[in-house]
């Protein structure tokens, strides 16, 4: 089985829900405390052994390329001010030569189209896809488990989480088949079904290991649910041609595509940091008492 060494990060989204914050900066650079969303996703991929990163960008994403580049003036200034430790921490974020590629998605035609735009960079090897607005904090990355499942079964593997029935219209929803040792066979998948039509409440949460044959499926996928080329529809078309499995997340998951999820993630991350915990907890307690009093 070919090892998965490359991850695709579709980052061309307009970030409409976060306007005006995202008017002049990509959504994935929004910080959870002091780390941009994309940094969490890149760290997660690296922790799972992924070496090569492919960002599928759109117009207005140039700040992302700068983020992963040397900031010569900033680093020199920090060193001159005796803050070499901070400069070194920035250096640590960089990747080796040739380990980052940028592919431009000229037309915003959806997630499936974004992945397809990376086809010439990916070639004929399985690859991961990470949606950085789904923030997953865990000790062992779910991606590692997904790679193990892929090594055993091949084909396509997705990460799922239970969502409230009322929320199925925001996600790709799977129909689970037999489950062995936590590995769920996927027999069907549908993009953003209404709660009354949803086959389950197991939602795909932005982590995929994909067989390279998905690119041919995407090539012929018609526009779907939201007038976009959906990755979900190509996964559906692949059922029966390659194995398809799902695993449940074991992490703390935050849908940072929504404002409430973003705020939840920020609070969670702040409470998890020794340099901030007591201050933030104090603020929460004070605000809670305040709202009880009023
Ligand atoms: C995308 C996918 C959807 C998936 C979701 C996870 O939707 O199309 O299947 O469940 O990401 O966040 P989007 O959130 O881009 O509308």
Task: Tag the structure with descriptive keywords.
294 residues, Spore Coat Polysaccharide Biosynthesis Protein SpsA, Chain A, 2 domains, 9-stranded mixed sheet, 11 helices, 34% helix
Which compounds are bound in this model?
Answer: 1-O-phosphono-alpha-D-glucopyranose
CATH topological fold name of the largest domain: Spore Coat Polysaccharide Biosynthesis Protein SpsA, Chain A
Can you identify the CATH superfamily of the largest domain?
Spore Coat Polysaccharide Biosynthesis Protein SpsA, Chain A
Biggest β-sheet: strands ordered side by side in the sheet: 5-4-1-6-11-8-12-10-9
Please provide the count of β strands.
13
Give a quick account of the main beta sheet: strands, pairing sense, barrel closure. 9 strands, mixed
Mean pLDDT: 93
Structural class: alpha/beta
Distance between the termini: 62 Å
Question: Explain this structure to me?
Answer:
This protein has helices at residues 37-47, 62-67, 72-80, 84-91, 111-117, 119-122, 142-153, 214-219, 231-238, 259-271, 277-293; strands spanning 6-10, 31-32, 35-36, 52-57, 100-104, 127-130, 134-137, 156-162, 172-180, 183-191, 202-210, 244-248, 252-255. The chain has 294 residues and is of the alpha/beta class. A 9-stranded mixed beta sheet has the order 5-4-1-6-11-8-12-10-9, with helices on both faces. Strands 2-3 form a two-stranded antiparallel ribbon. Strand 9 (172-180) and strand 10 form a beta hairpin. The longest helix is centred in the last third of the chain and has 17 residues, at 277-293. The mean pLDDT is 93. Bound molecules: 1-O-phosphono-alpha-D-glucopyranose (G1P).
